[in-house]
Amino acid sequence: MRPGGAAIGLCWLCLAPGLAQAAPAQPHAYVVRYMGDVGCEDWLNLPDRTDFPRDAVLNWVLGYLSRAAVARGVDLLAPADQAAITDWMNGYCAGHLRGTVLSGASSLEREMADGRGPRSAGWP
């Protein structure tokens, strides 16, 4: 390490929080991408595909719902396990073949927030 290299690095670490706070506030715009763009017809065919397993897309849905739960301050996923969510998504996609996994996850979020979402077999 060069003499003084550690001190310079330490100075950057000390300055970084101040620089981040000094930046003007930017409006927040969020875009959901990638697996949420999977079509409902694709969702229904995922169990038969080996190149793009349903578990990967289901994990995306669970992440979407988990983030929605944090944003709402409500444990949306408590009543439903993965099987119940998969069954719900299967039903949604069967009825909305031109929809996307994102549109399904968004509808599922609203239903779960209203207490109308899927329930696991052992849930009261």
Can you offer a commentary on this structure?
It is globular and about 35 Å long. The chain has 124 residues and is an all-alpha fold. The protein is built from five helices and no strands. The chain has a domain at 28-113. The chain is 56% helix and 0% strand. The protein starts with a helix and ends in an 11-residue tail after the last helix. Residues 4-23 have low confidence and may be disordered. Helix 3 (54-72) crosses helix 5 (101-113) and helix 4 packs across helix 5.
Number-wise, the strands total 0
Rg to the nearest angstrom? 21 Å
Strand content: under 5%
Q: What's the overall average pLDDT, rounded?
A: 78
Number of helices: 5
Largest sheet: none
Element-by-element helix/strand order: HHHHH
Helix content: 55-70%
Question: Which features characterize this protein?
Answer:
mainly alpha; globular
In short:
Helices cover 56% and strands 0% of the residues. It is mostly helical.
Blueprint of the fold:
Layout: H1 5-22, H2 40-45, H3 54-72, H4 82-95, H5 101-113
